[in-house]
Write a structure and sequence with these properties.
Pfam families: Dabb. InterPro entries: Dabb (IPR013097), Dimeric_a/b-barrel (IPR011008), HS1/DABB1-like (IPR044662). Homodimer. This is Stress-response A/B barrel domain-containing protein. This protein has 128 residues and is α+β, with helices and mostly antiparallel strands. Strands 2-3-1-4 form a four-stranded antiparallel β-sheet. The longest helix has 18 residues. The radius of gyration is 15 Å and the shape is globular. It starts with a helix and ends in an 8-residue tail after the last strand.
Length: 128
């Protein structure tokens, strides 16, 4: 559990340094996970939804459960969570926000595997 949280923390710190090289515009924070056996996923999702509604830094939040992927391609990952931030400073502030720090311990304890990507958005086709 602590190893996952430590790896997760080191990962986002590395990306903040990378994004410091002049990245502009929206930042997307994408988390893909496989939950541990026996985890009540609905409770984890409710906690995540509560977190993002309490923290105004999060511009948008989407989540979903895989329904079409082949095991060979999904590698056991089952859920994805995506947050959008207006700028990298908002993402950095979110990472150290007390509500996020508190929820991260709960989230980390529930996951077996995780992939985290943070990147400046390149929108090719606008929504709407």
């Amino acid at each position: 559990m602590n190893n996952i949280l430590c790896i997760y923390s080191r990962f986002w710190l590395r990306h903040l340094v990378f994004m410091g090289a002049g990245a502009m515009g929206e930042i997307k924070h994408l988390v893909v996970v496989k939950f541990k056996e026996g985890v009540v996923v609905e409770e984890i999702v409710k906690g995540m939804e509560k977190l993002v509604t309490e923290v105004d830094l999060v511009k948008s939040f989407e989540w979903g459960q895989d329904s079409e992927g082949h095991e060979m391609l999904t590698q056991g990952f089952t859920h994805s969570f995506a947050m959008t931030f207006d700028k990298k400073e908002d993402y950095a502030a979110f990472q150290s926000h007390p509500s996020h720090v508190e929820y991260s311990a709960t989230f980390s304890a529930a996951i077996e595997k995780i992939v985290v990507l943070c990147f400046p958005c390149v929108r090719v086709k606008p929504t709407g």
